[in-house]
Design a protein that fits this description.
- The complex is a heterodimer.
- The N and C termini of chain A lie far apart (54 Å).
- The radius of gyration of chain A is 20 Å and the shape is elongated.
- Chain A has seven helices and four strands.
- Chain A has a four-stranded antiparallel sheet with strand order 2-1-3-4.
- Chain A is an alpha+beta fold.
- In chain A, strand 3 and strand 4 form a beta hairpin.
- By secondary structure, chain B is of the alpha+beta class.
- In chain B, the strands form three sheets. In chain B, strands 5-13-12-7-10-9 form a six-stranded mixed sheet. In chain B, strands 3-4-6-11-8 form a five-stranded antiparallel sheet. In chain B, strands 1-2 form a two-stranded antiparallel sheet.
- Chain B starts with a strand and ends with a strand.
- At the A-B interface, helix 1, helix 5, strand 1 and strand 3 of A face helix 1 of B.
Chain lengths: 154, 168
Amino acid sequence: MEPVLRAAFMYFFLLVIVRLAGKRTLAEVTPFDFVLLLIIGEATQQSITGEDFSVTNSVVIVTTLVTLDIAFSLIKQRLTRLDRFIEGVPTIIIRDGVALKETMNRLRVDEADVLEAGRKLRGIERLDQIKYAILEKDGGITIVPKDGVTPPSP
Amino acid sequence: MSELKRIGTLEIDEDPSYQRRFFKVQKAGWALMAALIAVSMLGYFGGGPLTGRKAGNEGTFWADYQKYGRARSDLMLTLHASPMLFKGGTLRVRADREYMKRFRVLDISPRPAMESYGENGIVYVFHIDRLAPGAEVSFRLKPEEAGKAKGAFGSGGETIEFDQFIYP
């Protein structure tokens, strides 16, 4: 019973803390973010497995985590509120070339991030070429260019 | 699935009012995380300035113990005894059996000359120099389970009682 409880507790704890950390954290994984994720993984692993390094314990823990994830994905499909809490909602941060400053500050995104995404995805040169910029649920930035702005050839 | 709205030419499941509410929850979460770090630094989860406590009759028989500990993480307990508790060059300390059952004893320093299981607990006997100004016995314990632990030690007619909380 204990491995199941430990795994379930850490699953919910990580779910909440990653969500509270905000989208920016996972928007673009920097080398330091990657190191941080490894450290978090290491710290979590110790508390989930305890002193039991048996194959049975690992099987129980992995099964618990994957089952919880499947169960959550099924529940999220039915419960919009839960889906919003876990996944968040997409947020418009640029509208008709105008940066929505307050929203961007709260989401910890700045114009440079939007322009970077615009350059990479759409060959955007200036903010006023953007019709919409959206911070998506997964932390990525989607750019919808104004009419007449053509994406760069690959 | 979230409901799609039309904003200009864009179909999107944006919800600004939800987003605003979530920002507030997020800020409260950050405050909670900061509070958790502060409380942890103070030692409320063990190993900080507020976790070290004293119990017993200071000057005769008393203990320096940690009020908060963590399961499977070392916990130190030091018992102090004055010479008035020495009998025939020995110090006898009785530890509550139920309390000791909750821990794995990793080390006792100095090592007892004898351990015996009595009706009320485990009795440790230490050889003590007659001229020693007092004795100090340290236990390095590893809590096996989380929850409240009620410590009880005795020597001569003196007793020490204290409560500990072991976090999971």
